[in-house]
Design brief:
four-stranded mixed sheet, globular
Amino acid sequence: MSGLPEFTTLLLSRRERILTITFNRPEVLNAFAAIMHLEILDALRFAAVDEGSDVIVLTGAGRAFSAGGDLARMDQCIANPVEFDREAADAKRIVFLLLDIEKPVIAKVNGAAVGLGATIALLCDVIFAADTARIGDPHVKVGLVAGDGGCVIWPQLIGFARAKEYLFTGDLIPAPKAAAMGLINHAVPAAELDARVDAFCDRLAGGAVQAIRWTKTTMNLELKRIAHALMDAGIAYESVTVRSEEHRRRVAAMKAEMQERSGRGSKT
């Protein structure tokens, strides 16, 4: 579409005053590889200053919102942890970009939102999810600290006790349960997701634009204070765990399990 930047892992589109950013690696459930970390930063920077939009929507192509970390990329970071350090810094920038954008950012969670994918969805201002979606932060399942934002946003949404339960176990939460506990705003039938998000975005776009923006800005002052207090420590601890033997073992075990599943599937 004219006037919109083009990316290799993202699609940008505009409907009236609403800008949609779509994660576009459906073949790997929109998992984050190196280039996607960089491109989402550029896309969010563009969205923040885009004069053609007043509302931003984040969603995913295909069956998932985003599956979070790419296993192939994890292998690369195990071999060269400095690569992880750079991407962890990018994750911090993503968190603060989402908190700094004055425009309302709406998450349209069409499928699984996992790890960094969940963090991005939960840092949006209002979250709609298909009732078939699941949300979770399973950093611990691959031996990593949830340092890229999960420790910031989960306790603010559902309290420390519940946040600790889910960040300690890495369990994925069905969208209806997530809505009931206040982790997201709405779980809606998958067939109605687009229409519900469109209607809400139209309502915001037709509202008092400056009042909405600055109400968000005011509320996010506290979230930014918390993020500033926690992000550097979280990234540092995650950087330590990415260099650990436990992380290497757990990634190898997960890859073996996925290959076994794939082999069983090919025989049926």
